[in-house]
Amino acid sequence: MNRLTKGLMGLTLMAGAALAPMKEARADTNAVVNMTNNLELTWNWGTQHLYQASASAGGTVTGDTNNWYDAGTTVTSTAVPDTNRMFVCWTNVPGGTNGSNPLSFALNSAYTNVQALFDWTNRNLTVNSAYGTPTPGSGTWKHGTVVTQNIESVVNGPAGTRYRVKNYTLAPKP
User: Do both 31 and 62 map to the same domain?
Assistant: First the structure.
């Protein structure tokens, strides 16, 4: 008995004809068979899962993003932050992979809402003053945050001495 085997869909079969090996399986949905013998046609199926990855505001996702993949295929997506942004985490992914960038895992079920989250890059402000108490003082703020620093205009020193703010300087710091 002649039998179709996995990956031979879409071939025209004739009794007594030799089948040439195929280099790639085809996903045809039609099999044309010249019925000169008893034959058995078997449709072979494979499981696929949908994988969809997107980015929140502040970046993009490259690599594997929105497609159907064979079960067990390793998908890899990379979160790419915009200028002055940073990658925070992935949502809706297998446990233990949410902080990985790039994200890579075997697709054994559908993941249709994977998202890369981004946030503003943190910026540090170091405040120095020989006298007085700057408020709020040194700290870390998100990029673009407007911070108002205050300090007393006059600070008393030893008897007969005081210190008065003349101005301030602001310099880049690596």
Answer: no
Give tens-digit pLDDT for 11-67: 444 444 434 333 344 567 888 999 999 999 999 999 999 999 999 999 999 999 999
Q: Is 104 helix (H, G, I), strand (E, B) or coil?
A: strand
Domain that holds residue 134: 122-167
3-state secondary structure 48-97: EEEEEEEECCCEEEEECCEEEEECCCEEEEEEEECCCEEEEEEECCCCCC
Q: Give the total number of structural domains in the chain.
A: 3
Torsion sign across C-alpha atoms 56, 61, 64, 68: positive
Task: At 91, list the tokens.
Answer: 């949502």
Q: Are residues 94 and 68 in the same domain?
A: yes
